[in-house]
Design goal:
Imm11, single chain, 14 strands, 6-stranded mixed beta sheet
């Protein structure tokens, strides 16, 4: 099975900004946080007239809109999601996202290469360790990379989702 990194499309520069999380530093949350988070939360945004709302955010939190949530649910019922309402008080608008609490999987192949700071030079997944899992983050790397199977990629692309990019990851 082929695997891809799934991320927010970096070509989109005018993405709305969350007031509670100034800047774009990623916060890594997994299923161990599920009991500490409310099932539904409101976050507030400041935006310009031309702010865009991609269907996936990877920073500061990994969040997806309903279409992507449904696709992930089709392939993996174990991923925990929490509802997030993105509210703009000035414009009195509300957008709904799902906070994805995706667990890390120990799946690096021995041929992966790293810099001294643990950032990735060459990422290679071990197909025996991945074992047909459809969505996960990678244990042992500093980057908050969401990895999805070809099945998820194809399902998302068929729905014409906006603001997501995919990059194939080598698997041995």
């Amino acid at each position: 099975m082929k695997y891809y990194s799934m991320s927010q499309d970096k070509r989109i520069h005018n993405v709305f900004e969350l007031i509670e999380f100034p800047g774009k530093e990623a916060v890594d949350l997994d299923s161990s946080y599920a009991d500490r988070l409310k099932d539904n939360t409101a976050l507030f945004t400041k935006e310009t007239e031309n702010s865009l709302y991609p269907q996936m955010l990877d920073a500061p939190l990994t969040m997806v809109e309903k279409d992507i949530y449904k696709v992930i649910r089709m392939y993996d019922q174990d991923v925990i999601f929490k509802g997030v309402s993105i509210i703009n008080r000035e414009k009195q608008t509300n957008r709904n996202y799902y906070l994805a609490l995706i667990d890390r999987l120990d799946c690096l192949h021995e041929t992966s290469e790293f810099h001294k700071d643990n950032s990735v030079i060459k990422l290679v997944l071990d197909k025996k360790k991945v074992n047909n899992v459809h969505i996960f983050k990678i244990k042992g790397i500093s980057k908050n990379t969401v990895v999805v199977s070809m099945d998820i990629v194809e399902s998302i692309l068929r729905r014409g989702c906006f603001g997501i990019s995919f990059e194939e990851i080598e698997c041995r």
